[in-house]
Amino acid sequence: MALGSPWASAWFVFVAVTSFITTLMWSFVYLLSIREALKLPINWVLSELISTSLETFFYLIAFIVMFTTVTGHYASNVAAAVFGMFNTLAYAASSFLLFKEHKASVAAAS
């Protein structure tokens, strides 16, 4: 978040901040066992899969935009784009694992 200057790409900073907040939210859901405490009819794995997939897509767009707008603060913008690429890969791996878990839970319910 600190490397992406808001003047070069406000979109990158927006994606980084919202992904950070969303990841913190999901961490607290699991850390505080909110899933088990609420007893709501929510498919938590599917909800997290959708959230993580959207974050992956938005990070993909954000790091591409950051690579193309490397004007001004060249080094920090390139570094932000590279870290955005790493985040894209991390969120994509998480989305893949959540997809496998969701697919297994649907198959077990059938």
TrEMBL record:
Domain MARVEL: 1-103
PANTHER family registered for this protein in UniProt: MARVEL-CONTAINING POTENTIAL LIPID RAFT-ASSOCIATED PROTEIN, RE01453P
Keywords recorded for this protein, A-Z: Membrane, Transmembrane, Transmembrane helix
Organism: Papilio xuthus (Asian swallowtail butterfly)
Top-rank taxon: Eukaryota
Record-given protein name: CKLF-like MARVEL transmembrane domain-containing protein 4
GO cellular component: membrane
Compartment annotation: Membrane
Regions that span the bilayer: 12-32, 44-66, 78-99
InterPro entries: Marvel, MARVEL-CKLF_proteins
